[in-house]
Amino acid sequence: MVLVANNVQELRPRSGGDTEKITINLGYVDLGHVDLLVQDGFYANRTDFIRTAIRNQIERHSDATKQSVARRSLDLGLRHYSREELERVRAAGGALDIRVLGLVTIASDVTPDLARATIASLAVVGALQASPAVKAALADRMR
User: Fold this and answer.
1) Contact 10, 102 (CB under 8 A)
2) Which position among 5, 10, 19, 138 has the lowest Cβ density within 10 Å, counted as fewest Cβ atoms?
3) What's the sign of the alpha-carbon dihedral 19, 11, 96, 117?
4) Which positions ≥6 away from 49 have C-beta within 8 Å?
């Protein structure tokens, strides 16, 4: 029996504590343009410019993104799995098929054995936060 999670919370604008750090490389001329816009007060800083640019591109391609989310049967948002929740799944003889666009967190007290016993597959477009041992235990189930 495979269960699909339906209790996903809608994403809100990110605050400082729930972001993922990325690194990008820009040409000097592009970076100069960004710095001019910051200096002229259009943006608070480089990060503000980059976040705004990314959000504008996401909005520009929103129809394609919505179609892709639906085609892949992804839940949108933040999803946390606690040890207690996974133990209930195991007791019921079930297994989860986790498919999320956003953030999946697996509690730090979840053991690798419990994760393997209760998570049949894991597809995350975004970020997965779990212990290294749990990530290793689920590596063959990640898409």
Assistant:
1) no
2) 10
3) positive
4) 34, 37, 38, 42, 43
Closest residue by Cα to residue 136 from 120, 118, 121, 115: 115
> What is the reported pLDDT for 10?
47
Q: Which residues of 26-42 are buried (b: 16+ CB within 10 A; e: fewer)?
A: eeeeeeeebeeebeeee
Q: What is the per-residue pLDDT across 3-42, written as a single tens digit (0 to 9) for each?
A: 444 444 444 444 445 788 889 999 999 999 999 999 999 9
Give the tokens for residue 45: 């800083």
Q: Are 101 and 78 in contact (CB under 8 A)?
A: no
Tell which residue, 125, 116, 99, has the closest CA to residue 135.
116
d(CA 132, CA 7): 25
| This prediction's pTM | 0.67
Residue ranges covered by each domain of the chain = 2-10+73-141, 23-62
Task: Tell me the C-alpha distance between 131 and 111, whole Å.
Answer: 9
Please, are residues 102 and 77 in contact by the beta-carbon 8 Å criterion? yes
